[in-house]
Amino acid sequence: MKVMNMVQAINNAMDIMLTEDKSVVAYGEDVGVEGGVFRVTEGLQLKHGVNRVFDSPLAESAIAGTALGMAIAGLKPIIEMQFDGFVYPAMNQILSHISRFRNRTRGKFSVPAVIRIPYGGGINALEHHSESPEAYFGHTPGLKVVIPSTPYDAKGLLISAIQDPDPVIFMEPKRIYRAIKQEVPEEKYSIPIGKAKVLQEGEQLTIIAYGAMIREVQKAMVLAKQKDLSIELIDLRSIWPIDRDTIRESVRKTGRVLIVTEAAQSYGPAAELISIVNEEAFLSLEAPPTRLTGHDTVIPLPMGEKYYMISPERIMFEIEKLIRY
Amino acid sequence: MFDKNTLDSYKPTDNKMFSRIDDEGVPLDKNWKPDLSSELILQSYREMLFERTADYMAVSYQRQGRMFTYPPNLGQEAIHIATGMVIKDDDWFVPAFRELGAWLAKGVSLKEIFLYFKGNEDASRFVNAKRMLPVSVPIASQLVHAAGIGYAMNYLDEKAAVFAFVGDGGTSEGDFHEALNFASVWNAPVIFVVQNNQFAISVPLHMQTKSINLAIKGLAYNIPSILVDGNDIFAMHEVIDYARKQAIEGNGPMLIEARTFRMGAHTTSDDPSKYRSKEEEELWAAKDPLKRLKAYITNNKLADLSNEDALIAEYKQKIDKGFEAAEQHPAYKLDDVFTHMYQEMPAELKRQKNNLENFMKDGGVK
After folding, report:
1. ipTM reported for the complex surpasses 0.85
2. Which of the residues B112, B221, B342, B345 would you substitute to probe the A interface, choosing the one with the greatest number of A C-beta atoms within 10 Å?
3. Are the beta carbons of A68 and A115 closer than 8 angstroms?
4. I want to staple B238 with a disulfide (CB 3.0 to 4.6 A). Which of A30, A62, A261, B2 is the partner?
5. 3-state DSSP call for residue B168?
6. pTM > 0.95: yes or no
């Protein structure tokens, strides 16, 4: 089996779907000739042609809005928002139209589009290049929001997203684009949207995370293991719909839960997850459901990022507090 | 006959407006012959009259408390009927919201129009209207959809045009400019029609832009653009027909500024006396598109329009029937709220729906 990083796995998924389905097109800023600033679409224009993989003018609102137009006219567009912080000009199109068109027309028109967004910090970048805006999308009825943490999941989830009859926000943890390599089948496979994955079973504490935070949690779990702590790790994978069943089952077993997200705290995904824990496993709780999140601050520029990004040590600190509670 | 030469002789930079008849229905050029047969001229007049009658009726339904809100079309009918005469089943119509006559021509029923303004999403199914988009409330945001549809028509090698409507206020929105730019770069078959009715709710055009007209905004994007007399159905029809042919032949988008006046309120919740003068209203009443076409018909003895009472009574009956159909539409069900958010209802929505159903079983909501 071929070893791929996440960039290669996503490229491979797009290649498969472009080959299989002529209604699939991919575009955005620098997506065509250059293959994207992260090279995720590298080689796809050469292989599939300039009408199917192309550079669009630089305007995020129109990139999103034209995708809606293409989708209702029978295409399946995959668009790229070059960086997380560049999606904001497209929010009106995503929130006011893409998410609502099916409901507004009672199912006459649907928007089977995928909006890819490289997201998250820790890459020594300028402002607007390190943000975690998933809560905005998770809060928006009519969208599905997916965040993979491995190359294997990225490929399978992206194929599901492209095949989904409804719009999917596909957020790519760019910090680990090339950091993780694993064996990925070259053939087509899909992973269902809305299903979390238990990466490690454990007895004393459940940690729920997703995206680039998974790797940090896994490093913390090495520290925890040295102290003989048994931790269960859930990779949420879908920010919406949320897999209540997996969360319920895990927290009822462990009685303790820690949510780790890079996104700012208030009204964020961690708050939603803790509400679900309270609804589903209240009587099993042995400690307050706890969140370790980004601050309610702007994510600092690179020299200050160390005060924002969540380290394995900080996760370990919270684990120990929760176990001792 | 409107052609490339005509287009070139009405450069937006010269701020010249293309018209065929004057306020008294007299042709401006003695050698001009309409591109519509007498029968089609009469038909377009009747359609304008029907739109106007439907509009008056709609406002009265709203006043009776039978409809929540309604945006009157009064004074803009020539643009809508001209569009309706040109648009084909396979063409796309991307409306803003004030285009009643064109909606009807596209196959939308009166029932659906009234049902929408009574507040039911079922209205936007448009059962008999192919390629008809729903109302787009956020101003100008629909125009980028049109550019995307245009791309798809090229990609799928379909010979179909996209008619995209917006008002004068919408030309200040970023999406207006992004849509023109994308459509131009993509050579998309989109006909952008700006209904410049002089006011964006209460804000007059001179507060909206310092451009000498709105057609000029297309030039920077290298889009053929023209300022047209929106109250002159002959001029409107010629230009829209030309624009569609250009689009179908692969010559890309066009921008049409249809200069008109919103003779009614913005919506039934609006009071225009707060922001515009009687003098201005009277000035434009003299340019009423229906009055002008009626004068043309009378001048040329195409028909005797001196007594229209019977015709209007017949229209009113038909319109009432449409409104009654909207009132008799099945009641809004709890399921309707949840069913169309996704193709397959996610477990989370089922859970939330179930919570509400349990509450209602206990007699919670009547």
Report:
1. yes
2. B342
3. no
4. B2
5. coil
6. yes
